[in-house]
Design goal:
about 160 residues, Rossmann fold, 5-stranded parallel β-sheet, about 40% helix
Amino acid sequence: MAQRIGIYPGTFDPITKGHLHIIKRASKLVDHVIVAVANNQRKGPLFSIEERLAMVQTDIDNLHDKHCPISVEPFEELLISYAHKKKATCLFRGLRAVSDFEFEFQMTGMNAKLAPDIETVFLMAADKWQFVSSSFIKEIGSLGGDIAEFVTPAVQSRLLKKFKS
């Protein structure tokens, strides 16, 4: 039987506890999860691709209750092309609110046209993470607010260093 590979793509600028919750849940559904960190400079990330890969890898290394192997990789091509190259059977997407759904619905429709062999699996954010976004965390942290509840200590440390410089 072929291995079921799922990809969880994102910018992860930075990775949050909400992202980690989705990753942990996705690991129950496939044989291998690839956390694909997008190298998309158009989004103007605070952290370089190397910094984001390191943060995600650290958090994955410290993640308890992994149900399958989880790897972390950069990508900068069309997601569907990357998924085919990795022989993925599905893409995982997290949903927090109705506003996420509209964007994800359109993207899923386009991906289904481009690659009908790859399923998109939506995982609803847990109640405690529905309002958490990397953008909010960066804004709160840059203004001296407490972000400890939303990111791991390793990510918090990197954010605080970034804001001091």
